[in-house]
């Protein structure tokens, strides 16, 4: 469940499997309260998916 105390920023990259990919994401934040997670999902037959979620404290 999402918290009302955070602002969430989501970035999703979907591309054809086998194509080259360099993925980079950055955010200016408070390291004691904010965070991020990046997940690569490559189980689909013909695509790669990279999802990054930033959680920024309000």
From TrEMBL:
<protein>
    <submittedName>
        <fullName>Dynein light chain Tctex-type 3</fullName>
    </submittedName>
</protein>
<dbReference type="GO" id="GO:0045505">
    <property type="term" value="F:dynein intermediate chain binding"/>
</dbReference>
<dbReference type="GO" id="GO:0007018">
    <property type="term" value="P:microtubule-based movement"/>
</dbReference>
<dbReference type="InterPro" id="IPR038586">
    <property type="entry name" value="Tctex-1-like_sf"/>
</dbReference>
<dbReference type="InterPro" id="IPR005334">
    <property type="entry name" value="Tctex-1-like"/>
</dbReference>
<dbReference type="GO" id="GO:0005868">
    <property type="term" value="C:cytoplasmic dynein complex"/>
</dbReference>
<dbReference type="Pfam" id="PF03645">
    <property type="entry name" value="Tctex-1"/>
</dbReference>
<dbReference type="GO" id="GO:0005737">
    <property type="term" value="C:cytoplasm"/>
</dbReference>
């Amino acid at each position: 469940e999402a918290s009302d105390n955070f602002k969430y920023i989501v970035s999703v990259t979907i591309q054809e499997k086998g194509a080259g990919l360099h993925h980079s994401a950055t955010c200016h934040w408070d390291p004691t309260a904010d965070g991020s997670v990046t997940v690569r999902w490559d189980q689909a037959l013909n695509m790669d998916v990279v999802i990054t979620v930033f959680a920024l404290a309000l």
